Amino acid sequence: MTDLGLPALLARLTRRGLRPSEAEITLFTQELAWMLRSEVPLGRAIDLLLTEAGTGAMAPALRGMRADLRAGSSLAEAMGHQGDTFPETYLRLVAMAERAGTLPMVMARLHEGRARAAEWRKRVSSAMIYPAFLLLVALAAVALIVFAVLPQLRAILPETPAPGGSDRAIRQVIALSDWIAAHGVVTMLGALGLMAAMSAVLARPRVRLALTETAVRLPVIGGLIRQARLAELTRTLAMLIEAGLPLDEALRLARRATPAPALVALLKRMENALREGVDVTVPLREDASVPPLLASLMKVGQETGSLGQSLSHAAAIFEEKTRSALDRSLALLEPALILIISIAVGSLIYLVIGALMSVNDLFL
Questions:
Q1: DSSP helix/strand/coil, 41
Q2: Crossing angle (nearest 10°) for helices 205-216 and 219-242
Q3: Confidence category of residue 7, pLDDT binned at 50, 70, 90
Q4: Would you tell me which of 114, 141, 264, 302 could form a disulfide with 26, CB atoms 3.0–4.6 Å apart?
Q5: What is the location of CATH 1.20.81.30 in the chain?
Q6: The domain defined by 17-126 carries CATH number 2.60.40.420
Q7: Helix and strand element counts for the chain (H, E)
């Protein structure tokens, strides 16, 4: 590697490591909205936020924004110069707000949308704590039986396998336990390597999207994911329309923001219908995966001139349905995990009892 290439590589790695998190961007949006609503000048607000950021991950972006603002750039332009820190929808709304003189209101709306999405992610994460704990306890119980209990049966098992192979399974489990115990370092390194590889693979957006698309096809979780995606899309469209964007541009930005291929295709069909002068709700009615309520509310909103409000109402309905579906899914997940744990532990106990019975048969 050349001397000229090393600093550039280190700079890229540094910038990647200091990239602000979603929570930090949401906090920045909230604080900037507060200051602008309090009539603090934009330049002064950025200075205050930079002082508060210190050496945090948001500081480089704030320094760049301050320099661009002092050079005469707009806020949207200054944000756009900070790489992929701010999404395209965010930048487009800020640009529209600056032209319309509604920046404080739009920043507050952006914060509400981001905070709502963060609250949803937090709710899902918190709900998964107990199932994860159950799974951890199950793994610990299985490991205890396999590595502590089953090897003790070696002393009572005969040297030759039982006729008919009735003790074959427990002999194989004991052999596996002995191999892992004899190659503990190799096993641990292999497990750590596997975990690191899985973490690296799952960090790729394409892999996560592929896994999500696979999960969409599952019976219970698939409906939950589709409902959550539809709620997020509808909320995004409502925010874009209420900010003053025309419907065609709102559909285009929403299409770029959503990761779901099915929704991307749906929005593309809606854009084509709008360009051809066809009712934009026709693609919604033709798509069996979209609830008829959305098409009805959009139709009413177009006729009454309150499309943004209609989409907001639809988003609220879909979000409530998503919360209800999540609660039902979690209510089913816990007993399902308990059943799986019981089967796993019960199978091991069955092996132990089978081994003891085979030994007992030898003395009868």
A1: coil
A2: 120
A3: very low
A4: 114
A5: 17-126, 130-364
A6: no
A7: 17, 0
SS3 at position 29: helix
Alpha helices in 260-306 (DSSP H): 261-275, 282-286, 292-304
pLDDT tens column, 273-288 = 998 988 889 999 998 8
Average pLDDT of the chain, as a whole number? 81
CB contact at 8 A, 266 and 287: yes
Distance, in Å, from the CA atom of 144 to the CA atom of 315, rounded to the nearest integer, reads 48
Global pTM reads 0.67
State pLDDT tens for residues 103-160.
Answer: 888 898 888 888 888 887 787 777 778 778 888 887 887 777 777 777 777 766 666 6
Name the CATH superfamily for 130-364: Type II secretion system (T2SS), domain F (1.20.81.30)
Residues with Cβ within 8 Å of 156's Cβ and at least 6 positions away in sequence, in order, are 355, 356, 359
